[in-house]
Write a structure and sequence with these properties.
Keywords: Signal. It is built from 2 helices and 26 strands. By secondary structure, it is mainly β. The chain has one domain: Pectate Lyase C-like, CATH 2.160.20. The longest helix has 20 residues.
Length: 381
């Protein structure tokens, strides 16, 4: 009898707690945003009206699994070395927001990103970042906790000093970041960086639907050569557009090997160079369109790569000279369906240099049409 009574009481209590914890809380523009987030129970939804702008001088930390939406946040002028917001818990959702940085008011040594993410299984959607002194979003573990799982979707940035989205690890790759999807990213007017950076040992990453204009690059792959654990593996990059950028794809990695990188369906228009790719193994590139190149240098440049599969690349509407495709110090090379349109004027269609100190089979070249170049193909022995 008593057991059934207490069981009913416990069930009612659990239901009440569940309802309270899942409550929707309207953000009050007159109150400090930090205190409203701090007092919200786990599982709650905090919703603003989309018009209020909060200014912060210190990092607003999210330490519980909550949903936060429809808000605007600005980092105060002159405040450096602090994120505007940090997601420290797993399962956090942030959507429909704007973050404004203080670029130009802090020293370069004090720059910091607007939003830091160190929790797993996060969802960040429908965001806008402007004037960050560093990145818009930095995804990076801290306190020894790896990041596993997360989505960043429909995010744009304008006038940021570095990347809109940067994926990184902790302790030079010892604490990992993996299974992240970055989708529908736009970057404008970031001449020092670009839309997305994949760096320092992250693995199992998907980057798709990226547009960059007036940036150094659309997507970068890089390491800092501090540890073998910075090896970047299993990255899928697709549906990329770069306009008026320094590079479309910049993989300017060190001698450390990175593997299983695929890139497909990419358009590079009025860029100085379409692709610079170094030190990648098992790299597959397909469906590339290069037009209106603005530099006389090499447009697509592979250096020290093993297992290159380049399929379906076209060049058009360009007065650029020198070389369309250059492959050097690389093994197991396959190039098919590379085309130079009659509207191009390259000196060389494709140059292939031998691998230094390594045995390599002859390059496999199939169905290429490079006749628009002064010298369509040159293979150095």
């Amino acid at each position: 009898m008593h057991t059934r009574y207490f069981a009913r009481i416990f069930l009612v209590f659990a239901v009440v707690v569940s309802v309270v914890s899942a409550a929707t809380i309207s953000l009050d523009c007159r109150r400090d945003l930090r205190s409203q987030i701090r007092s919200a129970p786990s599982g709650s939804r905090l919703v603003g009206d989309g018009r209020c702008l909060w200014t912060t001088r210190d990092t607003i930390r999210i330490t519980r699994r909550i949903s936060l939406s429809n808000f605007r946040l600005k980092m105060a002028s002159g405040v450096g070395r602090r994120f505007a917001m940090s997601i420290d818990s797993d399962g956090v959702r942030v959507s429909d927001f704007e973050m404004i940085g203080n670029l130009g008011t802090v020293r370069s040594s004090a720059r910091q990103s607007l939003l830091q993410v160190s929790g797993s299984n996060f969802q960040i959607t429908n965001g806008r970042f402007t004037d960050s002194s560093r990145d818009g979003i930095t995804v990076q573990p801290k306190r020894g906790r790896a990041i596993n799982g997360g989505t960043i979707r429909n995010v744009s940035g304008r006038g940021n000093d570095r990347d809109v989205v940067a994926l990184n690890t902790e302790r030079a790759g010892a604490i990992g970041t993996r299974n992240i999807v970055v989708d529908d990213i736009e970057a404008y007017s970031s001449p020092s960086r670009g839309a997305v950076e994949v760096a320092d040992g992250v693995e199992d990453i998907t980057v798709r639907n990226v547009y960059a204009e007036g940036c150094l690059y659309a997507v970068a792959i890089q390491d800092h050569s501090r540890s073998r654990l910075e090896s970047i593996n299993r990255v899928k990059i697709s549906d990329i557009t770069a306009v008026n950028c320094g590079y479309g794809i910049l993989a300017q990695t060190m001698a450390l090997r990175h593997s299983d990188i695929s890139m497909e369906n990419m358009t590079f228009r009025r860029c100085r160079r379409a692709m610079l790719v170094k030190n990648l193994d098992r790299v597959k590139v397909s469906g590339v369109r290069v037009s209106q190149s603005t530099s006389s240098g090499t447009q697509v440049d592979f250096q020290s790569c093993n297992g290159i599969d380049l399929q379906g690349i076209s060049f058009s509407d360009s007065s650029a000279r020198k070389t369309a495709i250059r492959i050097s110090d690389s093994t197991n090379v396959r190039v098919s369906r590379a085309v130079l349109r009659s509207s191009t004027s390259y000196d060389f269609g494709m140059k292939i240099y031998p691998a230094r100190g390594r045995a390599s089979s002859s390059p496999q070249l199939q169905s290429n049409d490079l006749r628009a170049a002064r010298v369509p193909l040159r293979i150095f022995r």
